[in-house]
Amino acid sequence: MPDREFLESYPLYRKFRYEVPNYTNGLSKPRINMECEDCGKFETFVMVNDYWEVTRVVNTSTSGEIFRLQYVCASCQKFERYFIIKIDEERGWISKVGQYPPWSVKTDANLSALLGEHKDYLASGLILESQGYGIGAFAYYRRIVEETIDELLSDVGELLAGEEKETYLTALSAVRKTRVTAEKIDLVKDLLPPILRPDGMNPLRALHEALSEGLHAQTDENCLTQAMIIRELLVYLATQLAASRNAAKSFTDNMRKLLDAKTSKS
Ligand SMILES: [Zn+2]
Asked: What total number of domains does the chain contain?
């Protein structure tokens, strides 16, 4: 049954649209890839119990049922993960109602560095996200963007050169004049360097859209999706910026060494 992505990444109580088979015999046991705390890395986990263990009847109806899924790390055969899954009466969705070890999103090291003093907001946002409180999570992530956007946008400028950099810096001076985050992003979103545009996608434009959607009249579920998009975009931008900076530094360091060696020889 439960889709792999659902088990690996969905927070508690978030509905996963899924056409659930009528009977437990139709439910599959997908392998999942998650962190093993004993092995210290991501490993394949396999489901080792059966769905009928809970209902105690072989091949029973799935409607409204709650199942306990026991997974064990395929590598060490020791570390276990548990999921409690609730099936909709109409079999139109499933959701997690329990998970051990608790659902978590790894606090990304690059994002923490970018956030600095604001990283407590990330922790709060993640807790709300894990419980399915979308409106709350969205508010925290939006606050993070508001408080870090100036630094983020000026970091982007470092990746540009020549005429493109000039254009960007001009836009950036306009950015500093507005206090509205969406406007700031709007001013520079089309000037992003190609290295920050995976598959032609523009993360700043996506961030702008997610923020503009706002909280107005949105359900908790919609806000949760927007919140997750904002978090993913922040992680992506922070990671790419850090990687580009490190690559540039390593290049200049190595080049300097080569040039120094050449000078001392001659
Ligand atoms: Zn293991």
From this structure: 2
Distance 45 CA to ligand 1 centre (A): 8
77 Cα: distance to centroid of ligand 1 (angstroms): 6
Confidence band, pLDDT 50/70/90 cuts, at residue 2: low
8 Å CB contact between 73 and 45: yes
Cα(37)–Cα(43) distance, integer angstroms: 10
Q: What integer is the mean pLDDT of 172-185?
A: 89
Highest mean pLDDT range out of 14-23, 69-78, 217-226? 69-78
Q: Are residues 235 and 156 in the same domain?
A: yes
* Domain assignment present for 238: yes
Same domain, 43 and 137: no
User: How far is the centre of ligand 1, averaged over its atoms, from the C-alpha of 80 (Å)?
Assistant: 8
Does 258 reside within a domain? Answer: no
Q: What is the mean pLDDT of the chain?
A: 87
R_g (Cα) of the chain, nearest Å: 23
Name the pTM for this structure.
0.66
**Shortest CA distance to 122 belongs to which of 145, 144, 147, 153?**
144
Quote the ligand 1 centre to 67 CA distance (angstroms).
24
> Residues 67, 49: contact at Cβ < 8 Å?
no
Q: Who surrounds ion ligand 1 at CB < 5 A?
A: 36, 38-39, 43, 73, 75-76, 79
Take residue 215 and report the two structure tokens written for it: 């909280």
Q: Is there a single domain that holds both residue 168 and residue 191?
A: yes
Q: Do 173 and 70 have their domain in common?
A: no
C-beta atoms surrounding 123 within 10 Å? 12
Quote the ligand 1 centre to 6 CA distance (angstroms). 21
Q: Which of 100, 132, 164 is the last residue of a domain?
A: 100
Range of the structural domain that residue 78 is part of: 4-100
262: in domain: no
Asked if residue 169 and residue 130 are part of one domain, the reply reads yes
